[in-house]
């Protein structure tokens, strides 16, 4: 199966509404650099979703960085899948390592989020990845397999037609360090085989699996040229429209 390439920007806690609007205007000027053969998304803070919805160039979809798995309820400070869907959100980042590390989110809670996102008809971008200690102890494949299995355990294969996984080694996020493309390919091929063993060959061959961690215009193609790597989830280098467009060009071999 031919999978589409996907470039997703995770803006973390950056950009006011005014700054987000400026990004959209600048990216619109580069819209011819965004090949229609690939998928694109930006994941701004919640506060900028509504403004971006109407001004992003066509083909660039909206993602959210987080969600609470409950419906309406007494969860002060949280946002539900229905609230995101109403704003035109397509993707929701789930299980980002900053959520796991800084906000204590565990695999079970992340699994609930994946389920809630799918039930609302949105697409989870499930983040998995080992920390430095785990890498140094040779545990990378085991860690990503466990995270993937737990997050998808309660979900029927038929519900997984639209799923994105991002392999993001924790030590590579925001550090300027990366695995080699061949190392990332090996881990991502393993994640794909774990999906296949648990959810069947059809899901394994359709799931888009991205690499994330210090991706920039100069190194993205090395990753996305690998056979199992379907794109990139990018933090810092997705904040500038020109850098986003340059990564799109490189990812698409232009
Ligand atoms: C991220 O936030 O998911 C990420 C990969 O960040 P960066 O590209 O800045 O390493």
How would you describe the overall organization of this protein?
- There is one protein chain.
- The chain is 40% helix and 16% strand.
- With 254 residues, it is of the alpha/beta class.
- It has a single domain (10-172, 183-211), classed as Alpha-Beta Barrel (TIM Barrel).
- An 8-stranded parallel barrel has the order 1-2-3-4-5-6-7-8, surrounded by 4 helices.
- β2, α2 (49-53) and β3 form a beta-alpha-beta unit.
- α1 (17-29) packs across α11 and α5 (107-119) packs across α7.
- The two termini are 22 Å apart.
- The mean pLDDT is 97.
- The chain binds phosphoenolpyruvate.
- Phosphoenolpyruvate binds at residues 10, 12, 168, 173-174, 212-215, 233-237.
- Phosphoenolpyruvate (PEP) binds at residues 10, 12, 168, 173-174, 212-215, 233-237.
Shape annotation: globular
Largest sheet: 8 strands, parallel, barrel
The count of β-strands is 8
Q: Segments where pLDDT lies below 50 for 5+ residues?
A: none
Numbering strands along the chain, what is their spatial order in the largest sheet? Answer: 1-2-3-4-5-6-7-8
The CATH architecture name reads: Alpha-Beta Barrel
Number of domains: 1
CATH topology: TIM Barrel
- Average residue pLDDT: 97
Order of helices and strands: EHEHEHEHHEHHEHHEHEH
> What is the CATH domain class?
Alpha Beta
C-alpha termini separation: 22 Å
User: Which ions and ligands are bound to the chains?
Assistant: phosphoenolpyruvate
Share in helix:
40-55%
Beta-strand percentage?
15-25%
């Amino acid at each position: 199966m031919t999978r589409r390439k996907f470039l997703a920007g995770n803006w973390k806690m950056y950009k006011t509404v005014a700054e987000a609007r400026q990004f959209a205007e600048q990216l619109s000027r580069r819209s011819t650099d965004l090949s229609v053969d690939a998928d694109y998304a930006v994941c701004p803070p919640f506060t900028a979703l509504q403004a971006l919805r109407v001004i992003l160039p066509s083909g660039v979809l909206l993602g959210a960085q987080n969600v609470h798995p409950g419906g309406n309820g007494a969860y002060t400070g949280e946002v539900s899948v229905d609230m995101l869907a109403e704003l035109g959100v397509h993707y929701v980042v789930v299980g980002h390592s900053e959520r796991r590390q800084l906000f204590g989110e565990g695999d079970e809670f992340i699994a609930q989020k994946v389920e809630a996102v799918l039930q609302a008809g949105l697409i989870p971008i499930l983040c998995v990845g080992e920390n430095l200690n785990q890498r140094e102890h040779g545990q990378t494949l085991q860690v990503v397999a466990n995270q993937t299995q737990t997050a998808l355990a309660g979900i029927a294969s038929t519900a997984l037609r639209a799923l994105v996984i991002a392999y993001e080694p924790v030590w590579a996020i925001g550090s300027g360090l990366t695995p080699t493309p061949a190392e990332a390919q090996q881990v991502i091929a393993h994640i794909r085989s774990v999906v296949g063993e648990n959810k069947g060959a059809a899901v394994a061959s359709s799931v888009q699996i991205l690499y994330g961690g210090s991706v920039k215009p100069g190194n993205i193609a090395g990753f996305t040229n690998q056979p199992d790597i379907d794109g990139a989830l990018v933090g810092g280098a997705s904040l500038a429209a020109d850098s986003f467009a340059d990564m799109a060009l490189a990812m698409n071999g232009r």
